[in-house]
Write a structure and sequence with these properties.
Distance between the termini of chain A: 44 Å
Radius of gyration of chain A: 21 Å
Largest sheet of chain A: 9 strands, mixed
Oligomer: homotetramer
Strand order of the largest sheet of chain A: 1-17-15-9-11-13-14-5-16
Number of helices of chain A: 10
Strand content of chain A: 15-25%
Order of helices and strands of chain A: HHEEHHEEEEEEEHEHEHEHEHEHEEE
Chain lengths: ~325, ~325, ~325, ~325
Amino acid sequence: MTASIETVRELSARHSNWGRWGPEDEKGTLNLVTPEMVVAAAGLVKQGKVISMALPYDDAGPQNGGLGRFNPIHLMIRDGADVVAGTSIRDFYGGVDKHFRGTDDIIIMPLQSGTQWDAFGHVVFEGKIYNGYGAEWVSSKGALKGDVANAADGMVGRGVLLDVARALGVDWLEPGHAVGRDDLERAEAHAGITVGSGDFVFVRTGAMAAARAAGAWGDYAGGEAPGLGLDSVDWVGERDVAAIAADTWGLEVRPNETPDVAQPLHIVFIVHMGLWLGEIFDLDPLAEDCAADGAYEFLFCGPPLPFTRAVGSPLNPMAIK
Amino acid sequence: MTASIETVRELSARHSNWGRWGPEDEKGTLNLVTPEMVVAAAGLVKQGKVISMALPYDDAGPQNGGLGRFNPIHLMIRDGADVVAGTSIRDFYGGVDKHFRGTDDIIIMPLQSGTQWDAFGHVVFEGKIYNGYGAEWVSSKGALKGDVANAADGMVGRGVLLDVARALGVDWLEPGHAVGRDDLERAEAHAGITVGSGDFVFVRTGAMAAARAAGAWGDYAGGEAPGLGLDSVDWVGERDVAAIAADTWGLEVRPNETPDVAQPLHIVFIVHMGLWLGEIFDLDPLAEDCAADGAYEFLFCGPPLPFTRAVGSPLNPMAIK
Amino acid sequence: MTASIETVRELSARHSNWGRWGPEDEKGTLNLVTPEMVVAAAGLVKQGKVISMALPYDDAGPQNGGLGRFNPIHLMIRDGADVVAGTSIRDFYGGVDKHFRGTDDIIIMPLQSGTQWDAFGHVVFEGKIYNGYGAEWVSSKGALKGDVANAADGMVGRGVLLDVARALGVDWLEPGHAVGRDDLERAEAHAGITVGSGDFVFVRTGAMAAARAAGAWGDYAGGEAPGLGLDSVDWVGERDVAAIAADTWGLEVRPNETPDVAQPLHIVFIVHMGLWLGEIFDLDPLAEDCAADGAYEFLFCGPPLPFTRAVGSPLNPMAIK
Amino acid sequence: MTASIETVRELSARHSNWGRWGPEDEKGTLNLVTPEMVVAAAGLVKQGKVISMALPYDDAGPQNGGLGRFNPIHLMIRDGADVVAGTSIRDFYGGVDKHFRGTDDIIIMPLQSGTQWDAFGHVVFEGKIYNGYGAEWVSSKGALKGDVANAADGMVGRGVLLDVARALGVDWLEPGHAVGRDDLERAEAHAGITVGSGDFVFVRTGAMAAARAAGAWGDYAGGEAPGLGLDSVDWVGERDVAAIAADTWGLEVRPNETPDVAQPLHIVFIVHMGLWLGEIFDLDPLAEDCAADGAYEFLFCGPPLPFTRAVGSPLNPMAIK
């Protein structure tokens, strides 16, 4: 039977966390992370390795204009060429030379153009965002409810890499591959770890490796992709994880399994489960390292930047082993 | 005797790290952080507390237009009001309703407008940036040498809060107060910690608390301020720290102690020492917590975002205790 | 009797042009300008003088952050300092020197931050914009109805300067001065001109001259100001003008005469009359010239830029005499 | 013999206007337009037609990212959907409903991304811009010399359409077609007009019509194109025109005729002649009209916006017949 909006509604109802942490909660699954978990996660740091999962933010990024998203535009306000040309003092320091010459720069970027967290205000379903707040809380002013700053001091805990591609013995999953419970459990077995409550889970499909192998992003952003499928939802719900991130632009499999519903897992996970989703995480260096040392769990530290009223945020997520 | 450019040159020569980590080094004092230090720092996590040192990024920030810096401009590409108005599907999904309604946003911001790391490309002295690279490496294209992305996987280690204001028994240091060796050592004694090689040091002057008490930023950004003075340089150099950040806009005391040199410590620290400087860190919540539990050391995780060729970066620095 | 929303509703009803030019009209009062009027206006060009009414667009502009409006941010993408520093070819032309070195720049600006036309989509009253289109036509996507591009080929005709300040014998009208029928007719008499159908009328209050005399914009943008008052509405409606612009930030008198209604004339003029309003026009050079030669009428050419779906546009309005 | 840098130097020397209008001149060929010419041009207005030559500024524009140029990014600050959703008053008017609901928007755009004038500061040759100013006058601060604001009150005069494509009996010239003296004189003959001193000349190659016929911009921006060739230079110099604009992205033929020099005519025209060049002018509606009524001359009004220190400007150029 083809999945449909009814499937989405059913999964949403089954895994809804609305009210679970109070009627005014805006932290969602981050509530699952206890101080004890943070202490335990710190205990995973045994080698002193620090590995970033961020893709560089620059004009070589994956965006191609879809959804109004473009790669970051970086411009200098003043620079070293001004120093060489002698224009730095003349134009920026009022003609008074006090030996110091600074440079400054500016960024213009969609907050979801690269490695990113989705905030709860990012998705509206049937007029509501997570925990039942009405869509009107996310106006042109931004997300007065469900903004990304709610996670500003909470994205620390045990990280687990589920290298699904490696676990299945391939370089990358093909577009359209729906990662389900079996795939996830094979990746757990491969990692020798059981995912549990409050974990930060990183699902590697190999999609970024595929783009690297191709030497071009192609339609990485917005196109067909491997990713979590409907069959993953119960597993995710049962495990009660704090967050899930992947190396694809949108976390879930594309084309969507529900012909009548776009991004069904965003609806279940973000709107109903209050689950933090991460996208465009570069998991390749971490995967190489985990394959080498066999340690698939680590201390994760990856808070968003506290952009007030924002519905997403770039970040530099760190795996510390 | 009044300090001058000669003082700056002398301190720069005394503490220069040019060549210390090779002729092509762009990581500077981050080289001091060893894997052992990271493991040891993780051992400081005993309570599971996670405290952010980031000021929110929004239009209520401290910038007032000086140096071309302004507070972040946040705009919605599409939002929940569009959902309510029924324009979301019409205008952003081609008129095809597949139940999903997303929102997206954009940020326009100087990379040094809020809580930030300065990259080495941020300061040029006598035509050079850190490690002797010429100013021409920081062109309108950005910092081809000395960009902030060099620190993308390195800002993890032992953090130490030096609450100078509290150590001196005041709510905040007055503008013009030059924090020197004595103040720093009093703060160390107050914290019960000796700062050492590879540490991440956070110097609290109380300047942000003062702005909060006043209910307005006033000339916090660019104005007179307490901060590190020339007398702190030898201490910083001897301790061989990985990075220093403060709760002021520019880390160092203002007015500068050198009438003929602007921001002399930027010249010594960034250009010659290759030291990472952090500014506009909100140290007040951390200071409250440290005063309460007496633990002034913690695991620090605060990488910049990997903005390619950028001379600064916003971040969300975390103290994990 | 104090004016109120009832006054606004009455004036709106009396002067409504909804339907006057068809149910789908988006040009409003520009429909009044006939080809004959354009030819006649060209006949006013007798001296070959060309006078701009635009304020420079730069960081010295009048905006102070209110309403999310800021002065234009201008940044270079690459510049002449790069040429001097030798970085132009290296960083922007792939290292291949073909003698040419270009520079480029970028602007970030609210479309209503300087000299500007208001589009009909700029004001909503009781859920409607001009000609009865619902507010939902102006979504996050922009103004699908009532955008400024509707005037892209229509802002040419007879211009008339009504120098109210000079006509009243003052350097500038005081904030709170409501320009009414009497003032306008005195200015007509002073100009020796009778305003008629299809004219482009420029009302000089002297507010910009006052800011110049003060040497600072102060609260020019968003503050109290002289400007058109409720008593001007019948005159404007009777004369059936094509557009009205003034040298203030908002055209109408501030504080508003209606305690319960903000910007009542915007509601009457833009929403109901379909009248094009111009703001922050620099009328001082033109006024000097008119005072000198006594010619207060001229060929006006001042189209907006055709920003698709925009609710306002900067422009360089020209008086040609 | 293949043209080369020597050709460019020779043409530059032959047609240099450096010093012609004084050593500090920044207006270049606009000096050629006399008041008498403006009066005479106004006399060409006989039908009252007003025709825009601007391409809409929006995300459907021709840019593809080359040279750091992108299509305008237009975002709403607040909009009508907020009115419908009831968030307008709550979020932008402090919760106080005074019946007025405004909308506002913002633009982010390279100043040379659409219909545009090039300023003299846009091109540097051998370290100099027009009239001998050094490249250091165009720093990260912008063009302190040679900015586009120099033309703010001068772009009015006789306009002449040279429809080269129509004159040659084709829908459009092919990429690589170098328009020379013969083509221009055939277009003059076709128009029945002789171009003279102080004229504003619009050269139609049909390149935009070709893109329209193809239904896509393809590599219109930055790619191969028809355009003025080296053989046009003497004609342009002899006629002493005020400005030349075309319907291509770069005015001159591509590939360039000089293998060792990029954009040779920009070097001759902008740097040495001080000639104002316009690009991406949409000449198709005007051409249709001229073909219909046979009137190829008109009053031209097309000033740039006075962006201080900018090296280019969008505009809405008007032909008034």
